[in-house]
Every structure is written in C-alpha cells, then in structure tokens.
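User: Teach me something about this protein's shape.
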Amino acid sequence: MAQFGGLGGSPELIPLKDWEDDLFVMAVERALGDKIRADDQTASAMWSAVANQDWKHENGDTASYSFRCAGDFIASIRGEGQYMDWYCSGPYETVRDDIREALAKEGWTPA
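Assistant: First, the predicted structure itself:
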C-alpha cells in the first residue's frame, strides 16, 4: 500500500513529470487531464474533489492533498500558473459526479 499526497504550496509551477510517482495524480491526468486543461470550471471542480478529501484505490493505496497541494497538482496538469491560481477555487471535499465516475474507472473512490 502506498500513500500519495502532501502539503504543497510551491511558489513556482511544478512540472507534471515531477508527479509521475504519484499514482493518483497520474490517474487524474489520464482520466481528466484534457478537460482540466480546457475548462477552468473542471479545474476548479477537481480542486474541490481533492482538497482535504481522502481517496482510496481498489488496491489499498490512499491519496490525500492539502488545499495548497491540490492547487499545485491542478497547475501542473494545466501546465501553467501555481497553487494560488486554484487555491480555494471551489468548495472543498466536494466531488462532482463526472469526476467521481472518471476516477472510479481508474480504481479511485472518495473515502
């Protein structure tokens, strides 16, 4: 079992390749990356879905991200900005149905 997540809060953009060991972030990239890059509302909804929300993979892995770390990885997926661009961009611990369904296909569900 692995635990993914962290506290975050980098003042600079973290390249997406720096997240490749974080299987949750890579699942988000595969399942929703194009939508997150194309749509600010989806990016904000993704922040809401991960900020202070625990996630569990069917293999027992877990993921949990602070408000700042959630912003870090949204900026990384978009390839622009930094955590403050997404920090508190929506209600935390709120998982939109399309996000829940897309990540369930990757084996992840909110805990």
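Now, about its shape. The longest strand covers residues 3-6. Residues 3-106 form one domain. If you'd like, I can walk through any region in more detail.
User: That's plenty for now, thanks!
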